[in-house]
Design brief:
Blueprint: H1 2-37, E1 49-54, E2 58-60, H2 68-76, E3 85-87, H3 88-100, E4 104-110, H4 119-134, E5 139-146, H5 148-154, E6 159-168, H6 181-186, E7 190-196, H7 204-207, H8 213-238, H9 249-257, H10 263-269, E8 275-276, H11 279-290, E9 301-303, H12 304-311, E10 324-331, E11 334-335, E12 344-345, H13 346-358, E13 362-371, E14 373-375, H14 376-391, E15 396-405, H15 407-412, E16 417-420, E17 425-427, E18 431-437, H16 439-444, H17 468-493, H18 497-503, E19 508-510, H19 511-517, E20 522-523, H20 526-536, E21 543-546, H21 553-561, H22 565-571, H23 582-602, E22 610-613
Parallel strand pairs: 1-4, 1-9, 2-3, 4-5, 5-6, 6-8, 10-13, 10-21, 11-12, 13-15, 15-16, 15-17, 16-20
Antiparallel strand pairs: 7-18, 14-22, 17-19, 18-22
Helix pairs in contact: 3-4, 13-14, 17-18
């Protein structure tokens, strides 16, 4: 009887579960049909409206792959732990389209929620803003508080407004890695490091508690070049001297004292902003400019995402009859094997290059690099595919984004030409190897390892430690890898090995320096690189084709299913949102930095344990 009762109860639970799932499924199908047949989701751009460029997230060359179902569920529950990402190309496309759109009369530049970004990415958007202004359309920037990255864009506006309780923070550039030596020592973890190059500081966080003097000198030099570029641009736009930038605390305190410590008044007095306005005052200004919206409560406007959706097709289609310049993005850490978008897999990125080589309509390729490097083996697989493209008669332009250093330079080296933005961080030609062993950590816990093997080569492991002779062998491999790196650059750049070695040694350069040293051919952005690739292939009429990893049929279905606002509303559980400010934000940034550097260790999967990687290339502003 008990058995039957339990079985009946279980069957009832199963039936109820299936019933609930089926009801939800039917409701979703009905909602899809209703959504398709409804005109409510059609996006209309009001005549005489303001484009509100409300950028929320971090600017990237390529978005990380996120499982569509996870993304939809996270969004429906009030957000995601992953930081939002915005494609630079999407922002540029929106601004360029709006510049020609007669329905758009002005732009409100709202960068309040824009995360940090390298000058290279900001400059691409800034150029589009300048073109928008050239059409006689005003650009008004407004914010509660401007970070350094946000202000770079705001400086291109006709007018910069600041909230009376806000401020502007421009502090310069710096690199401050987190160092783990004492922590590793306390955990009894033995760190075995093998490196070549005076300035190869990628492993310093594992073996030191501070930055070496050699690394400080090299980093200070390229950071100073980057800072000079920032100051030159902003000072010219705002019409004041570069001495207006505060570079010492004494200078900043003296100026702040003249306005009784009021940050907003400080920004106004010294020319950083044009006016102090609260939200109501800004809204009235824009109503006077373009008029009221249909509800009569605010100004006529359309936001960034809505405007993008109004003209960008969800799926791109290629014209099979036109010749192509293919663009392949190599963004993130270079690791061995296959990786989704946002990371560079040796096999997966090589496959994209091979796809371009096998496509008869692709006549030239732009390899867009935004990477501080990684696995040497994976980098070589990608470089070989670049060489194969050239051998197939298809010219390749390496277009460097924010950073193309170490392994990022390795994969660029074989291109017909290397293009970089003036602010690109590159070089860092050097290699290292690193192995952690835990024999002391395990012994502390009373765990030991012992046994026998047929050769001495089997006598090392994470619990046995590293044999001195094996360590010597690894160091020899690293030195050989460095020699190969020098030869790779020497052969492709027309420099002697000795000349390359003199500017290598793991040293980081800004692109303006790299061009003088022969590591870069020309300074220019991605569009200029595309035009250069077309010229090399003698193309006058061509389309640009982005070659990237395609989503599976299942991913596309889920993305379309949950892409509808109607569907999202069925599963939404609204959660409160709050903005992190002050000390909380700084603490979050510290945690993210530590997590990022720890996560980096997980990407060390080179078969030989040898890496061309630049850790200091992550600039803080």
């Amino acid at each position: 009887m008990i058995k039957k009762a339990v079985k009946a109860t279980w069957d009832g639970i199963n039936f109820s579960r299936r019933l609930v799932v089926n009801i939800i499924f039917i409701a979703i199908i009905i909602a899809i049909i209703a959504s398709i047949s409804s005109d409510d989701n059609e996006i209309l751009v009001p005549d005489g409206s303001v484009l509100t460029l409300n950028l929320n997230g971090y600017l990237v060359e390529q978005k990380r792959y996120v499982d569509p179902l996870d993304a939809a569920l996270a969004e429906s529950m009030g957000g995601s732990d992953e930081p939002a990402e915005i494609l630079v190309d999407d922002v540029v496309a929106v601004i360029n389209n709006a510049a020609k759109d007669a329905r758009i009369e002005a732009m409100l530049l709202n960068v309040q929620n824009l995360g940090g970004a390298h000058i290279n990415k900001l400059d691409a958007i800034a150029q589009a803003i300048d073109e928008f202004k050239a059409q006689g359309k005003p650009v008004i920037a407004s914010g509660y508080y401007y970070t350094q990255s946000q202000y770079y864009l705001a400086a291109h506006a006709d007018e910069i407004n600041l909230h009376p309780y806000g401020g502007v923070s421009i502090e310069g550039f710096g690199v401050y890695p987190v160092y783990f030596k004492d922590a590793l020592d306390k955990l009894k973890i033995t760190q075995h490091v093998f490196r070549v190059g005076t300035f190869k500081s990628a492993v310093e966080p594992l073996i030191r508690n501070d930055m070496s003097q050699a690394a400080k000198e090299a980093n200070k030099e390229w950071l100073s070049h980057l800072w000079t570029q920032y100051k030159d641009e902003v000072a010219a736009l705002r019409g004041f001297e570069k001495t207006n930038f505060d570079e010492t605390l004494d200078s900043y305190l003296a100026k702040l004292e003249t306005v009784d410590g009021n940050s907003a008044e400080y920004a106004l007095k010294y020319g950083w902003v044009d006016a102090l306005k609260n939200n109501q005052q800004l809204r009235e200004q824009l109503i006077d400019l373009v008029g009221l919206d249909e509800e009569g409560k605010s100004f006529r406007q359309i936001g960034f995402n809505d405007y993008l959706a109004s003209f960008k097709l969800p799926v791109s289609f290629d014209n099979p009859m036109t010749e192509k310049v293919a663009v392949i993005v190599a963004k993130g850490t270079i690791v061995d094997g296959h990786r989704k978008a946002g990371e560079i897999g040796g096999d997966s990125t090589a496959a994209l290059l091979r796809e371009a080589r096998n496509d008869d309509m692709v006549k030239a390729v732009v390899l867009r690099i935004d990477s501080g490097g990684g696995s040497m083996f994976a980098s070589e697989l990608i470089r070989r595919e670049v060489i194969a493209l050239k051998e197939a008669g298809k010219p390749v332009i390496a277009s460097m984004g924010s950073v193309a250093a170490s392994g990022g330079y390795w994969i660029a080296s074989a291109a017909n030409e290397i293009w970089a933005a003036p602010s690109t961080i590159t070089g860092s030609i050097g290699v290292f190897g690193t192995i952690m062993t835990f024999e002391n950590s395990a012994a502390q816990l009373g765990i030991h390892s012992d046994g026998v093997a047929t050769t001495e080569l089997k006598g090392s492991s994470i619990l046995l430690g590293l044999n001195d002779k094996m360590a010597q062998a690894i160091q020899m491999s690293v030195e050989n890898a460095y020699k190969r790196f020098l030869e790779v650059v020497s052969q492709s750049r027309g420099l002697s090995v000795e000349e390359v070695d003199e500017i290598a040694q793991g040293r980081v350069w800004i692109a303006t320096q790299a061009k003088e040293l022969g590591l870069v051919d020309k300074l220019g952005d991605k569009q200029e690189a595309i035009e250069a690739a077309a010229a090399l292939a003698s193309l006058k009429h061509y389309d640009v084709k982005l070659i990237e990893q395609s989503l599976s049929a299942q991913d596309i279905f889920i993305q379309n299913l949950f892409g509808s606002a109607t569907i999202k509303s069925l599963i939404s559980a609204k959660a409160p949102h709050s903005a992190s400010v002050g000390a909380a934000m700084q603490f979050d940034n510290l945690v993210e930095q530590v997590q990022s550097q720890v996560a980096t260790l997980k990407t060390f999967n080179d078969p030989e344990g040898i890496y061309a990687r630049c850790l200091v290339c992550a600039v803080t502003d």
